[in-house]
Structure formats: structure tokens, C-alpha cells
Amino acid sequence: MRDEQANHLSAMAKRYSLTACMRAVSLAMEVHGAMGISREVGLEQLYRDIRMLPIPDGTHQIMTLIEGRELTGIPAYRP
């Protein structure tokens, strides 16, 4: 195995998976209507969990900056 970092690949995977999860839970909440926000169905817990996932890793914008920096070699912020 080559000694390379996969920062851009992991950033893309994280961004895509968080977006897909958020979309799936949001659609499920729409399908269930008012029951979707109740504790009985459990979707509200999933929604809260998904909203907390970007906090340790970074927001979508940070993931996009990481991807761009790794793919182009140009830093997002120039001193």
C-alpha cells in the first residue's frame, strides 16, 4: 500500500453520507407527518443524532474546502 493520505476521499464520503442520512430522515418525518416528530416513532432521535455528527468532523463547507485543497493543491485561504 502506498503511503498516501486520503483526506479528500474521507471528506467526500462524510459529506455524501451525512447528506443522504439527513435526506432520508427528513423524508421519513414528512411521510409520518406529526407522528414523525414524536418520540414514539424514534425519528426525532435520529434527526438529533444526524444534526450532531458534523460537529466533531466539520461542517459541509469545511469538508468542501478539504476536498478542494486536496484535489487542486491550492489552499482555500492564502496568507
Protein architecture, described:
The longest helix is centred in the first third of the chain and has 26 residues, at 7-32. The chain has one domain (7-69). It has 79 residues and is an all-alpha fold. The chain is built from four helices and no strands. Helix content is 67%, strand content 0%. The chain starts with 6 loop residues before the first helix and ends in a 7-residue tail after the last helix. The mean pLDDT is 81.
Q: What's the tally of helices? A: 4
Measure the end-to-end span: 35 Å
Strand content: under 5%
For this structure, the quaternary state is single chain
- Structural class, judged by helices and strands? mainly alpha
| Count of all domains | 1
Total number of strands: 0
Uncertain residue ranges: none
Shape: elongated
Brief summary of the model shown:
By secondary structure, the protein is mainly α. It has 4 helices and no strands.
Keywords:
single chain; 79 residues; mainly alpha; 0% strand; elongated
Q: What is the secondary structure topology, with strand pairs?
A:
Layout: H1 7-32, H2 43-52, H3 54-57, H4 60-72
Helix pairs in contact: 1-2, 1-4
